[in-house]
Structures are given as structure tokens and as C-alpha cells.
Amino acid sequence: MTSIPANMKVAEMLGIGRVRLADRPVPEPRPGEVLVKVERVGICGSDLHYFAHGRIGNYVVQPPFILGHEAGGIVVALGPGVESPRIGDLVALEPGVSCGRCQFCLSGRYHLCPDVLFFATPPVDGVLAEYVAHPANLCFPTPSGLDSLDAALIEPLAVGFHAAAQGRATIGQKAVVFGAGCIGLMTLLALKARGLTNVTIVDLMPSRLNKALELGAHNVVNSAQDDYLKAAKEITGGYGFDLAFETSGAEAAARLSIESVKKGATIVLVGYGQTGEMTLPVSLALDKEVAIQTVFRYHHVYPVAIEAVAAGLVSPRLVVTNSFDFADIQEALDRSLNDKASVVKSVVIVSG
Hints:
Helix 4 packs across helix 5 and helix 4 packs across helix 10. The chain is built from eleven helices and 20 strands. The chain has two domains: 177 residues, Quinone Oxidoreductase, Chain A, domain 1, CATH 3.90.180; 137 residues, Rossmann fold (3-Layer(aba) Sandwich). The chain is globular. By secondary structure, it is α/β, with parallel strands linked by helices.
């Protein structure tokens, strides 16, 4: 049986752009919870936004605060009443704990629960820690052949799968994804898993476009150098795309989504912009009768995403470009924030 220490290392954000390792007591799992020894944590765009600005909208960091919500690790202790998962299981942690009582939870759309507690969303601490206690029903066992890196990446992959589902993506469609960051690339993987073979990725950075090609994009367009609308016409035979996914949060990309889809197409807005507001050509959207969908996290997607990875349909680990030891957490966040030309996705090795 694994020996559980009294104290653990955590990464505490002390202020904007400042983080350090500190000691905190190892949490005790409450009834219905398990204790997970965290092995891998992915660094998300929201982590970097909190790190750089100290807030996202009304969610304000009160230091010391722990970032991180993409985690994979090993179950090392069970709280009262827990039968599954079992000690020794490798699990992927779904980070949002909903109330289970509101109309959204009762209808199955628990991700819209107004009282959800989500890792690394103030005031709830995140998972950049050696141990985390979490509800057992949100710790999904992974099959043999997967490791803690795969488990940690189920969270961003779930966003991509939910985006593809919101767009009702189906084989035979032509799709365009704006943004080749982590979520854009996870959306690409999800679309390919649903049978789409003609997916175009649009971005400004050559390194990210190269990563998109590595992951199986059919076409890439560098919007800083190429005429995107001209390329879109050539790719689609002049009709426009069936589907567009805007993952960058940029107003210009959202406008291009409307301009480059065909009539009756679906546009899925995934990315959050700096201001949260956009001016868009609504008249053109009306003329085309486009359907506009949005994405807020996901629901009931973890089992699907885990099965897709286990079956070899997708390999989210290929999105990762950089790994950092836990002791180098300051460098991990600094580089992920400031070197976007080469760092697409970073993962922190907490243990294991």
C-alpha cells in the first residue's frame, strides 16, 4: 500500500506572474471522495490568463492560489462509501463539481449548473499539487495502455468533443477551425474521430500550423500571409464550409467564420476573447441562415473521450510540445505564456 505523507508540495500563485512551491497538508477524502496522487497536469489557457492578469471576468485570484484543472493520477485512498474507482486505478479527473439539484443538473446539462465548483476557478484551488481529493464519480478509470499524460489530456479533449457534438459534425462535411492552440487542435482530433477527412486549420503561427498538419489537418492557412477567403473558396469549390469552429476568441476570426461558411452552415463559438464582446456581420449570418452554437466546457463526454483514446481513434498526447518538472513551475508558466510561437501545449510532471 502506498504510504501517504502528512504534507505535500503545491504550486502557489502569489501574485501576477509569480508562483512558488509551498507545503500544505495532504487532504483527507470525505464521504464519496477519493484521494488522487497527481502525476501530470496540463497548463490551460485559463491558467495562463489568471497567471498574467489575476482574473477572468468576475473570477478574481486571491493569493495564495493553486492553478491547474487538467489532471491525471493514481487513486491512493478511498473516502467512506466509495467502491469505485479502486486504489491503484489510473484516473482522469473531471474538474467541475455541480450541485446535482438544480434544473440544469436534473436535466443532464450539469455543466451549466450555476453553483458548479471548478478546479482553478477562484475561489476553488486547482490541481497543481501532489495530492487532490475529488468526488469518486468524477474520477474516471482509464484502461490499460493509457498513462497519466493521456489521463490529464482528457479534459481539453473533452472540450473538442463537445464542440464537435455542438456542431453535429458528420462524415463528408468540410470544416474549418480557427486557432491552432490546444483547443483548436483537440477540436481537429475530435472531428477526425467523427469521420471528417477535410478539415482546414487557420492560424498566424507557422509552428502551430505545422503541428496541425502533423495531427492530420487536410489544409492549413496562415492568415498572416495568405488570403484566407480565397483559399476557402478553392477548398470548398466556391460553396463555403459546412462547419466552422472559432477557438481563438478573436473577433476577426469570428467574422471570417460567417463570411466563409455556406448557406445553412453551422458555426460553433468556442474561444473566449479578451473583452468578451464582438461586432459581427449579423445581416450576412441572417442571409445565410447559419446556426450559431456555443461551447461551455462539456457534459457526459469523459467516457467517450477516454474510449476514443483507448481505441486509438485520437492521440491527444501528440498536441504536447513541452514538459516541465514540478520544481520548474515558474519557468513552465512563463514560457507557456510568453513563447506561444513554439509552445503549443505544456504539461507539468508533478510525480511519477
